[in-house]
Amino acid sequence: MNRSIGWKFTGVLLVIGFMVSIQYNTMKHPEERDTRDIWAIRQELAEEKKTHSELLKEIRDLDKTIASYESMTDNNTGKALTDTVDKLRQQAGETDLMGPGLIIEVKPSPESIAYGMPITSISSDLLNRFVNDLNRFKGHDLEIDGKRYTMLSSIRDINGMTAVNGLDVATPPFKMKIVTQTNQDCEKLYNYLLASSIHDDFYLENLIMDISEPQEEVAIRGRPEKFENLYLEELPKGE
Prior knowledge:
The chain has 239 residues and is α+β, with helices and mostly antiparallel strands.
């Protein structure tokens, strides 16, 4: 009888000890709470909705392309393929473009000139930060010091010089050109860049951005480098 009571007492103590250990771990490692305010959450939700909308638009465009291919005859299939290739070349930045946009001149700050500070190349880190800040707005094309920048482009430090697509960026002053889809987009981008904190990052490197007012026509050149086809082979006619 005493042995049975002892086992029951031991079991109760084990249960109590287990519950105390769980409570201790919970108090020691509480769940992290989201401390952002409602506006920060709404802003993030708006960004997610914008991304979702862009993905849906891309899916609709691809569905239209597939539907157009399926409805075509052999006579006009070639033209459809040519149009698709031209569109892809434009997206890859191989074609010249003209449209509403901005011209930004990157030049040494007045203080650095007054104090005779040496003028050095813009750092690759700063140029990457500018591009990332610019990418908050979709549907634009960018040229950096005459070099076309696309999603396939690279910004690297090569032997102490910042390079875009393997080509050195000139020591300031140099110009960057942005072409947008509409005048309204250009105006929004202009107002955003004027108020952006990226100016502080440039100033820390003794540089400033002189942003032109929105222009009706800004021309940027296509990238001269051609993409190499490593995997596809053209079949002889008739196969």
